[in-house]
Amino acid sequence: MATARIVSLKALVHGVSVSRWTPLSRVLRLRSRPLYSAVRDYSAAISPPSKAVVYDQHGSPDVVTRVTELPPVEINDNDVCVRMLAAPINPSDINRIEGVYPVRPPLPAVGGYEGVGEVHAIGSAVKGLSPGDWVIPSPPSSGTWQTYVVKEQSVWQKVDKSTPMEYAATVIVNPLTALRMLEDFIALKSGDTIVQNGATSIVGQCVIQLARLRGIHSINIIRDRAGSDEAKAHLKQLGADEVYTESQLEVKNVRGLLGNIPEPVLGFNCVGGNAASLILKFLKQGGTMVTYGGMSKKPITVSTSAFIFKELTLTGFWLQRWMSSDKAEERQSMIDYLLGLCRDGKLKYELEVAPFDDFHTALEKAMGKRGRQPKQVLKF
Description:
Layout: H1 2-13, H2 24-31, H3 35-45, E1 50-55, H4 61-64, E2 65-70, E3 79-88, H5 91-98, E4 109-110, E5 116-122, E6 134-137, E7 148-152, E8 156-159, H6 165-168, H7 175-184, E9 193-197, H8 202-213, E10 217-222, H9 228-238, E11 242-245, E12 266-269, H10 273-282, E13 288-291, H11 304-308, E14 313-316, H12 319-324, H13 328-343, E15 351-355, H14 359-366, E16 375-379
GO cellular component, one term: mitochondrion
InterPro entries: ADH-like_C (IPR013149), ADH-like_N (IPR013154), ER (IPR020843), GroES-like_sf (IPR011032), Mito_Enoyl-ACP_Reductase (IPR051034), NAD(P)-bd_dom_sf (IPR036291)
Domain Enoyl reductase (ER): 59-378
């Protein structure tokens, strides 16, 4: 038995697909074939080993994660083996590792939830994908912080290889959230106004640009902190109509700040607490506030008059629920649309590409331990 294991490992190293029980005579026959043929058989049956970010328990990501090598994985008939090119570190990734996100993979788990990769090998039943194609997991799928990922073909969506890698890696969670919120709650038309907090976030930056493309005004709220003037200038450059810090809005009548801009009919809240209350102050009669995050970890407080006299509507949005619905064609069309905007330079946001070998440095930045940083994108 021990001899069989040793022979199997040696065969694997040389590109031959065998099991632990393969007779020695068959191993030798396989090894006698041309190297190309052996490598082809190997790649069609089993993935290369994968370097991955793994966690065995929930907790602070900088404590519980480790980078380790995972063994090869079998590639079944309907599977696609993808060599990951890039994957972001999203706040929801951090929350999953902490154990506070509503949906979490079973432990032990590989981190990451979106990204872009190149098809390395395909199962015998796979149609429409070939080695060398670029793909993204759509809907997003756990385990993207590793060098090779094997999942069924239904997980992967092909994308245009001319797309900048870092944008292909980050298109689903943030830009798609911005697009869906602009389209799902109010039938916005050119000349309307939206208001949002968390405007410097990737979602916030995308909302500004997507709204501007539709002729929609945007009022944007940011936190009071060092560098707020630079942040204002950057958002204005992206197309924001107005940008205010929270302290600037500590006035009785915020309508006086709007000038010729119509009162907002729709608001987006990702902060909670006082920042959410500021959105409610801006909304016009019958307006709607959509909550998609709670970065301050503070509750939303709504005055009775907001419900009775302004007739405001408060609702929530969770991208994963929408992605889980049966809208594959619509989802693919929207992703292609967003990536087309990225290629044309009409949709851009702050990113910092970090080598996968520097994972823990990128993680510290993503966790805010080095001050405000652009979104971290791991490059494999």
